[in-house]
Amino acid sequence: MIAYARRKLASLPYDGDRLNAKYQVKEVLNFSFSLLPSVMVSALMHTLSLVPTLLWVNGIIDYPFCCLFYFSAHSLNAPLTKLTLIVCHKSMRQRFQLIFVSRLGVKSPTMIERDTEKEGKEYFDQMKMAW
Predict the structure, then answer these.
(1) 3-class SS letters over 46-66
(2) Distance CA 10, CA 2 (A)
(3) Are 9 and 25 in contact (CB under 8 A)?
(4) What integer pLDDT is reported at residue 120 of this predicted model?
(5) How high does pLDDT run on average in the chain?
(6) pLDDT in tens, 89-122
(7) Is-contact 58 118, C-beta < 8 A?
C-alpha cells in the first residue's frame, strides 16, 4: 500500500484539477505510515499471548493463570493498538486532543465587576440630557 501510494503521488501532476486527488493519496500514505506501528504492537501482543499457553502446555503454570494472562494480553491489545494509532497519526492526535484533553481543564469565567452606583449616575445624567 505504501509503495503504491508513493508511486501514485509521484505520478500525479500538480495542477488545480488534481489537487484533491493528490491530497487523498497523501492522506492514504500518511495513514499507512501511522498504521505500521499499530500493526506491530498488535502482532507483539498476539505473540505475547502465546507465552502463557506454552507455559501451561509445558506444565509450568496452571490453567487458570494461563487464561488470566492470555485474556489479559488480548484485552490490552485493543486499547494499545488504538492508542498507538492515535499517537502516530497527526490528524487523529489533534482530534483526540480537541475532543478529550481540552475537557480536562475547567475554565472559570471571568466575572465583570459592575459599579452600580456609577451606572445609575450615568443613567440619570442621560435622562436629564434627554429631557
Answers:
(1) HHHHHHHHHHHHCCCCCHHHH
(2) 12
(3) yes
(4) 86
(5) 82
(6) 888 888 888 888 777 666 666 677 788 888 888 8
(7) no
